[in-house]
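Letters spell out the chain; backbone shape is given numerically. Both lines appear below:
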Amino acid sequence: MSTAAIFKYGFNLSPMYRRTTARVIDITDDMKAVKIKVPLSYKNKNYVGAIFGGSMFAATDPIYMIQLMQILGEEYVVWDKAATIHYKRPAKEHLFCEFIFTNDELEAIKKQVKETHEMTIEKTTYLKNSSEQIFAEVIKTLYIAEKSFYKEKLKKRKQAMSS
């Protein structure tokens, strides 16, 4: 089974992700593109019959970080650092969201981390209906570092705290 298939089925079977009501519906073999669906259902309807904002936010939360970890590999550390969601309109229908990393972005990340050992990036994605109408904008801030640099950074932090 490919890494992409394990990623897809792992997310869809994980109790943590299942509770968001979202499902990973498509993923490329190189993991550079992931598509999710957030269906409108009795499990995520709010008081006015729209998808609960927390479900939309939680559905998008882990994707970029884990996607980037898989693409970059073991030599890197990737953490979610911050997230913001801007709701545009009530979602009373199924929503879809795509998470994409381009080759140019990935090369720029690797180059920057090689030069500075760590960096942060912002990625923006949108929750849309099947007609491409935007219902929410999600901005994620990700921290990326060389694993060896990050381990040394944690070691120094621990030493400073014990002094």
